[in-house]
Amino acid sequence: MGDFLNIFTGGAFGGGAGAGPRPRTQPGRDALASVTIDLKTAVFGDTAHVRINTFGLCQECAGTGCQKGTQPTQCPECHGKGFAQRVVRTMLGQMMTTAPCERCEGHGTVIENPCPSCLGHGRVRTTRNVGVSIPAGIGNNTRLRLANQGEVGENGGVAGDLYVDVRISSDDTFTRDGDDLHCWIQVPMSWAVLGHDLEIDTFDGPQSVSVPAGCQPEDTVTLKNLGVTHMNGNGDRGDLVAHVVVQIPTKLSDDERSLMEQFAASHDAGASHVSQSSRPTVGAKKGFFSKLKDALR
Question: Which segment of the chain is annotated as a signal peptide (predicted)?
């Protein structure tokens, strides 16, 4: 039945398998790998390395598949055509069919002396390290494509591509929101009341930060252009936003407690209830630390 169908698919009329020998070189398949980078690498970019196990070029035969000093020879069965013809009997009478040559598998040549390392395939299984250029500003779970870094094809065929999934590990100091970085700085209550200049760590090294007098809990201080590099941009970066966390003392000395009671008597004696809303109130009264700062002037 296969021969009969071949008659109507071009084989009996000079097409199909009779079009010519099939090349030995075959393209390689794509490969997939993953790499985890830290947040600093995502901010500035760098080179990471992945270890992959794929078919690589056979070094002994340089991809030819033949022993050194030899080369493929013309197939003695098909004489280099890559296909064989034969006559079959059908209900329509005798017909000439073509099919790939069984001796050379349609290549038109045979490897009489295959390479002992790759057994005539021109490639061997190998493990290798590949450098991956991480662009500045890359996002989490981004897939990068490295052309021709995948599986090497048979008998010198072009290699496939390598796709690398990039994951960004969490950082102990900073969190990322788009191209902005956020961190939380804990300051004593006295600094929030009176103001203070301090240094914080950034990916660019230590930077000076001014906590303004009367700073409220969760107020922020923004350091411009110290965030994540804009992807595919001109080198501009997002901001670093420092959130102020005011440390309220849990234990007070007698003198400290007396001072706080004096402040409460002066500023909070008339307070009978607290305000409550679903969002910050526009034009709200001064916060605790602003009032405390005023009282200490």
Answer: none
State the pTM of this model. 0.75
Domain count, the chain: 2
Give the CATH number for residue 235: 2.60.260.20
88 is in which domain, residue-wise? 2-168
* Residues 83 and 34 grouped into a single domain: yes
Residue type, 224: K
The sign of the dihedral angle between the CA atoms of 94, 97, 103, 108 is: positive
Q: Which of 254, 282, 285, 283 is nearest to 268 (CA)?
A: 285
pLDDT at 7 over 50: no
Tens digits of residue pLDDT in 247-273: 988 898 999 899 888 888 877 766 666
Task: Identify the CATH number of the domain in which residue 162 sits.
Answer: 2.10.230.10
What's the Cα-to-Cα distance from 260 to each of 188, 232, 264, rounded to whole Å?
15, 54, 6
Q: 151, 168, 185 — which closes off a domain?
A: 168
Helix or strand run (H / E) with residue 193: helix 189-194
57-95, pLDDT tens digit by residue? 999 999 999 999 999 999 999 999 999 888 888 887 888
Provide the strand spans (E) within the chain.
Answer: 31-37, 46-57, 73-74, 83-90, 93-100, 109-110, 123-134, 142-146, 162-168, 175-177, 180-188, 196-200, 207-211, 220-223, 240-247
> Which pLDDT band holds residue 219 (cuts at 50, 70, 90)?
very high
